[in-house]
Amino acid sequence: MTACDSCGARLGRRNRSGLCRRCHGSATGAANRRHPDATCEHCGRGFRFRPGAHERFCSRACYLAGNVVPTGPEHPSWVGDEAAPNTRYRRAQRLIPRADCEVCGAHNADRHHRNGDTSDNRAENIARLCRLCHTKHHAGTLGAVV
To answer: 84: helix, coil or strand?
Structure first.
């Protein structure tokens, strides 16, 4: 029994091309025949291209570790405070951890922007209110949140 030159799969006795059915004639199979060896961009280890695999990394673990997308101001698409209101709200969720309600003491309170500006994510502008107190505040029955 012989193995496929491209992916290493076992070949039948009558196979003369040296490639399995998946690799024979496919664009990746042709590329593998032309460039059989590569070096992983993350770990530097040599590897052989496999059909369907990422061509710059030897494994999924190296792909995930070596293909890190920057976040925040380092990301090329960062727009800062010009982001959509929903994006600013999610940013506040990441920056300010949940805590107990400042009014009634209930656990796992929401974050409320005291001045109403969702782009102002300073700690002193974020109040922690439970869902009930938050609803009462916006309905006008709770009063001002200090």
So the answer is: coil
Q: What's the predicted TM-score (pTM) here? A: 0.42
What are the domain boundaries of the chain?
84-139
Show Cβ contacts of residue 16 under 8 Å, excluding neighbours closer than 6 positions: none
Tens digit of each residue's pLDDT, the chain (146 residues): 578 777 777 777 777 677 776 676 554 444 444 445 778 888 888 877 666 556 777 877 888 887 777 777 888 787 776 767 677 677 777 778 888 999 999 988 888 888 888 778 788 888 899 999 988 888 888 776 65
What does the longest C-alpha to C-alpha distance in the chain come to? 84
Residues 6+ away with beta carbon under 8 Å from 109: 98, 99, 100, 101, 102, 128, 129, 130, 133, 134
Please choose, from the candidates 78, 70, 81, the residue with its C-alpha nearest in 3D space to the C-alpha of residue 122: 81
**Cα(28)–Cα(19) distance, integer angstroms:** 12
Could you tell me which of 146, 111, 117, 113 has the C-alpha nearest to residue 129?
111
